[in-house]
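[09:14] KT: can someone run the structure on this one? pasting the chain below
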Amino acid sequence: MGWFRLVRLVARVCLPFAVLAGCAGSTVPYVYKAGEFNRSSPNFGKEPTDITSVTICYGTRGSTPEEIRDMAQTECAQFEKTARFTDQNYQTCPLLTPVAAHFDCVKP
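[09:31] RB: done, structure tokens below
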């Protein structure tokens, strides 16, 4: 009976950490759209007709600079523009994808 309690205790302690570690390792970079879910925004549910910048949220473990740059370029190319890196920070994106890479979309 003592062995079973020990196994249950270890499972209760280790399982949450294993789940969090699994979530942190499987993050995929994505285009951050501020206010995307804000229903009171005048642009809610509408596709943009033009953009001046794009932000990519990513984690440093599962992403390469080339992948981030290509994502920004793809987003800007929809509006016949090219992506130009401006800066990055840790204030914009959520915890599992903490790095925000900011790009300006400029006419070529």
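[09:33] KT: thanks! The beta strands are 30-32, 53-58, 82-89, 99-106.
[09:34] RB: yep, looked fine to me
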